[in-house]
Amino acid sequence: MSSQTPESRLREAGTGRRAVVRYRIEGGLTDALGTITALDADGCTLETRTGPVTIRWELVTAGKPVPDAPARRRPLRPEA
Questions:
Q1: How far apart are CA 59 and CA 39, in angstroms?
Q2: DSSP string, 56-70
Q3: For residue 58, how many C-alpha atoms fall within 13 Å in the half-sphere facing its CB?
Q4: Confidence check: pLDDT of 30 > 70
Q5: Helix (H/G/I), strand (E/B), else coil: 10
Q6: What is the average pLDDT across 50-68?
């Protein structure tokens, strides 16, 4: 079992890496998936599909780097 914290795993991954972060919000938990764009003493920022998400470290419950997103496939053309 790893003794690393979510913060240490994300810091080790560094900016430019894709990651997922689970964090507390009012009423429960939510996830952010995207590219790490900033890591500082207060928290981390991920660039997600819907825009940047900044998360304070004290709200993070889990986090880790993940593989790059698979390449998008071209849509199939309907046959004539």
A1: 14
A2: EGGGEEEEEE-PPPP
A3: 1
A4: yes
A5: helix
A6: 96
